[in-house]
Design brief:
heterotetramer; A mainly alpha (103); B mainly alpha (487); C mainly alpha (90); D mainly alpha (324); A: 103 residues; Helix Hairpins; 3 helices; D: 324 residues; 2 domains; 11 helices
């Protein structure tokens, strides 16, 4: 039983670890990976806690997560496309760190 | 005839119509523009139908799939939904017509299907009564908004769109984690059921924090506004209008609905005060930044940051100020949407006209584009909050509440924000009158692009004259009157 | 029997983690890629064991899909990353 | 039985910590290629975790989409990135160090730790037993038209969410096509070994896809999993350098992309008129409607994922930057 909470806590850990990487890592590919890890964390929490309804597992969170995985791959494809477009115009695939407002 | 029409599920049509049109436009790229224009007019007509239905029979709800909550998903339309749907329809039709002049035929297949999907997402979002359904609509909305923001393909717009995409995905994930926690504590994703069950618990607070933070990021509340100015300023003008007028409002709409429905367990909390402080900072910061801008579109974008701040000023005021404050917020959402869309369309016209949008080089556009400059002036009146505009009514109600409760700080911030808004609006108008040292070669601007800007600006002013009936319409379902209970 | 299966699964998982060293260490891209392919195979074995433990036959479908799709990333690697960089190991 | 429980706990603990450790190494390493390989491995372990959590449907989706297609997408994007950026040679420490000031980094770390603590506290405050919606799902399963509860939720009880989900998929391909131009599929190399492999693999994949679609009514599987395997088969063909016809121009491809969402909308409209509620199937026909929806959705999902893969790595469309 408590294993479900363990998995949920790992989910929390993945979410916050991804958040940290999203903030501190400069390369866009790393940011995209970070968002994917955050997503996995949320999904893990959703499904793990759905296991608390014994004897039958609650499948509604599972259906939500399948929906979420599809959204995640769509968003990843879009993000990779944008990243490649960006690195065509300026090498390095990073966001201009210091956005001056008047550019 | 009337008896039958009242039975029609207008709300469902509002979702299916733009979706079908988007698919048709995707299938037949050559006809995307005509399909889109037809859909836009039909959506406006459908919103009128829904409005008439609501005034006759009250709150509308629909049980999707025939499965009652908590198992199934329900749709719900009250006065607040209607207001947002109508705002989207009006701005949407105007922007659609405007865009026929703005985009070349080659860009049609890139613009129209995405814009129709965005419209479908907006309508579905305003009709949702289920937090997971809200998450799906939020994703559809965010991803289509990013796509539209990247449409010019310039270096600025691509990097702005990238930042926008990362921000919007982060916001959605925080929102999803929040509703996941709520579901696992309270066993439902239906707002009405949740509102009965949610109580003052650790999980409620965690969900409140995650959902508020995620939606504040999407709404671009200070200090989460970093993505907004570049994204809104580098997008094509009709897209900027849609993003500023509608897309940021959609996440605020969810925040407000959940705040009233779910998070009323903490009526007198510091969270509301904190949101108020961030809102106040946004008003000042956004206005000052707007004043400092060299480019017109950046100025208008920073003005959005400031105007979003006003929306959040309502949270501390509502603790004792009651329903009038929320009516003011709803009114502000409407009038800002109209005025801001008009301003971005004006910026698009000036850019097309002179080939740039540097404010100091506007070079007597007032004589050459009188309709456009008039639109900017009228929209500016509403943004500043001068009578008799819609913006005046909204800000007056807020100011009244602030003064009645002795919130002198908020009152002061609002006045200061108004003065700063006047300063940046008149800065633009001033340069529009004087000749610039660098003359520009003028390109003629199609009349419909000018008149659409003027139409929206005029409507923003007109909103000030119909306050009474509008308030009645917003009041359908009494969302704001009985704080704490969702019908 | 159950005990044996779960111990075996645990052993395979340990194995997988030991292989992680190769991914982290490299040195060449191909080393990392091969290690991850090995993981795919190990994962299939773990899934089959779990299918026995939980007597859930649907898990065999998961293992099947795994086995089939392990190839896709490897092919993507060979196709996209390999030819442009013949002396990668250096 | 006691011993089994103990060993299982050991397995779970190790799996959980490996997931976290992998994510950490993936996100904070200086070599992008290593990160991508670690991401693929991460997806593998996630799939095992889904199995341990009694979510085989999610495991299938993760194995096909999470680890498989996303991995291939990342791998291709990385290859493309390397042609654009000479500094990206695999095996070298090639990333710029985080630009954040040291103090800012520690503030971010402190914030992360606090957030983790708060969220963990909230999670642990949840009741250890909660029925969720499992009772509601199980009691209505008989009238849903299928016997597999996940399929019942996705296609019937919450079918409206899935309708919007199909719109997200359509949007993603519209988006990728509008951001990047779509010329013909990748470069054409031929390699005898690969070609034989692909010739053997593709029909098997298509067969497995059909099997998963069919089995979804009463066992783990369904449109999303079947569709992503179909997409994977397409990706394999593209990678083998098959001269696929121009995806964007082809009317047939567009039709396949739209088939799923269009079926949903058509059925929603039909049920709205006949039954008074969108996507409310008459109980007698529910099984047929769901099979129809799933079949068309499978086609659309597969085509979309393939088109996303091809589309995300072609050259950007030539755009004028005059009026932005």
């Amino acid at each position: 039983m408590s294993m479900l909470f363990f998995y949920a806590l790992i989910g929390v850990g993945l979410f916050t670890l991804g958040l940290l990487a999203l903030v501190v890592q400069p390369h866009l590919l790393q940011k995209i990976l970070a968002l994917n890890v955050m997503g996995s964390g949320v999904f893990l929490l959703l499904v793990a806690l759905g296991g608390r309804s014994q004897p039958v597992v609650d499948v509604v969170p599972q259906a939500m997560v399948i929906t979420g995985i599809v959204v995640a791959v769509s968003a990843t494809a879009m993000a990779l496309t944008l990243m490649l477009n960006l690195s065509r115009s300026s090498p390095g695939a990073q966001l201009p760190e210091d956005q001056s407002a008047d550019s | 005839m009337g008896a039958q029409l009242i039975q029609v599920d207008w709300a469902v049509v509002l979702i299916m119509l733009p979706l079908s049109a988007a698919m048709l436009g995707f299938l037949l790229p050559g006809m995307a523009r005509n399909i889109g224009l037809l859909a836009a007019l039909l959506i406006l007509f459908t919103v009128v139908g829904l409005g008439w239905q609501l005034t006759q029979t009250g709150v509308y709800s629909h049980v999707a799939g025939g499965w009652l909550a908590p198992l199934g998903i329900q749709l719900h339309a009250d006065g607040f939904s209607l207001l947002m749907l109508a705002t989207s329809a009006i701005v949407g039709v105007a922007v659609s017509i405007y865009s026929t002049g703005y985009f070349k035929a080659a860009d049609d297949q890139r613009f129209w299907p995405t814009w129709l999907l965005l419209w479908a997402a907006l309508n579905a979002l305003f009709l949702a009564a289920d937090v997971f359904n809200l998450y799906v609509t939020l994703e559809l909305l965010g991803l289509s908004a990013v796509t539209l923001a990247s449409l010019t393909g310039s270096k600025d717009s691509v990097s702005a769109a990238m930042r926008y995409l990362l921000s919007t995905l982060l916001g959605s994930l925080a929102f999803l984690l929040g509703i996941g926690l709520l579901y696992h504590q309270y066993g439902s994703v239906d707002i009405a059921i949740l509102s009965e069950r949610v109580n003052d618990s650790t999980v409620s607070w965690a969900a409140l924090g995650l959902i508020t933070a995620g939606l504040a990021l999407k709404t671009a509340l200070f200090p989460f506004h970093f993505w907004l100015p570049p994204a809104h300023a580098s997008a094509p003008a009709p897209v900027s209008a849609l993003l500023s007028a509608l897309v940021v409002k959609a996440s605020f709409y969810i925040l407000l609905r959940l705040w009233l429905g779910l998070f009323d367990f903490q009526q007198d909390s510091t969270v509301a005060n904190m949101l108020g402080i961030l809102g106040a900072t946004a008003v000042l910061w956004g206005s000052i930044q707007a004043l400092r801008q060299i480019r017109l579109k950046m100025l208008v974008a920073y003005s959005t940051v400031a105007q979003i701040g006003y929306l959040f000023l309502a949270f501390p005021l509502a603790q004792t100020g009651g329903n009038r404050v929320w009516y003011a917020v709803a009114y502000l959402m409407l009038s800002h949407a109209l005025a801001k869309a008009a301003m971005f369309l004006v910026a698009g016209n000036m850019m097309l006209f002179g080939g740039h949008d540097r404010i100091v080089n506007l070079d007597r556009v007032v004589q050459r584009l009188p309709v456009t400059v008039a639109a900017f002036g009228l929209a500016g009146v509403s943004i500043m909050g001068l009578p008799p505009s819609g913006g005046f009514i909204a800000k007056w109600l807020l100011l009244e509440a602030a003064l009645a409760q002795g919130h002198w700080g908020i009152a002061g911030i609002m006045m200061l924000g108004g003065i700063l808004a006047a300063a940046y609006v008149f800065k633009v108008l001033g340069y529009a009158f004087i000749p610039s040292p660098v003359p520009h070669q003028a390109v003629s601007v199609p009349a419909r692009m000018q008149w659409m800007a003027l139409l929206l600006a005029t409507l923003a002013i007109m909103a000030g004259f119909v306050a009474q009936p509008l308030m009645q319409l917003i009041g359908i379902g009494a969302l704001f009157d009985s704080t704490g209970s969702m019908p | 029997m159950q005990n044996l299966y779960i111990i075996l699964a645990l052993f395979l998982l340990l194995n997988l983690l030991a292989g992680m060293w190769r991914i982290l260490k490299g040195p060449a891209a191909a080393d990392r890629m091969l290690a991850s392919q090995l993981f795919g195979t190990t994962a299939v074995a773990i899934l089959l064991l779990l299918a026995q433990i939980e007597s859930l036959m649907a898990l065999r479908d998961v293992a099947l899909v795994f086995a089939l799709l392990a190839a896709i990333t490897a092919i993507a690697f060979v196709r996209r990353n390999w030819p442009q960089e013949p002396d990668d190991a250096g | 039985m006691e011993a089994v429980g103990l060993w299982q706990s050991a397995f779970d603990l190790m799996l959980g910590f490996s997931l976290f450790g992998l994510a950490w190494r993936m996100l904070f390493c200086a070599d992008l290629f290593k990160s991508i390989v670690l991401f693929i491995t991460f997806g593998l372990l996630m799939a095992i975790a889904w199995v341990r959590l009694e979510a085989p449907d999610v495991a299938l989706a993760e194995a096909t989409i999470g680890a498989g297609l996303t991995g291939a997408l990342l791998m291709s994007a990385f290859a493309k990135l390397r042609t654009l950026d000479n500094s990206l040679k695999s095996g070298q420490p090639l990333l710029p160090r985080p630009r954040l000031h040291v103090i800012n980094f520690w503030i971010a770390l402190l914030f992360t730790v606090l957030l983790t603590g708060g969220l963990a506290y909230a999670v642990l405050s949840l009741p250890s037993h909660s029925p969720g919606l499992s009772d509601a799902v199980m009691s209505q399963l008989d009238s849903s038209g299928v016997t597999h509860p996940v399929t019942a939720v996705l296609l019937n009880f919450r079918g409206y969410d899935t309708l919007l989900e199909m719109a997200v998929l359509l949007l993603s391909i519209q988006s990728v096509w509008s951001m990047a131009g779509m010329s013909d599929a990748g470069e054409v190399h031929t390699s005898p070994v690969l070609n034989v492999l692909i010739q053997l693999l593709s029909p098997v994949l298509i067969l497995v896809s059909a099997y998963l679609l069919w089995v979804g009514a009463h066992a783990p599987g369904g449109a999303f999993q079947a569709g992503s395997i179909l997409g994977a088969a397409g990706v394999l063909l593209v990678l083998s350098g098959r001269p696929l016809f121009n995806l964007k121009k082809s009317w047939l491809i567009r039709l396949m992309l739209v088939a799923g969402p269009a079926a949903f909308i058509a059925l929603a409209t039909l049920t709205l008129i006949n039954e008074g509620q969108l996507l409310k199937y008459p109980v007698a026909n529910a099984a047929n409607y769901i099979l129809l929806l799933e079949t068309l959705a499978t086609v659309s999902i597969g085509t979309t994922l393939l088109a996303l893969f091809v589309g995300s790595q072609t050259e950007a469309v030539q755009q004028d930057q005059s009026h932005q």
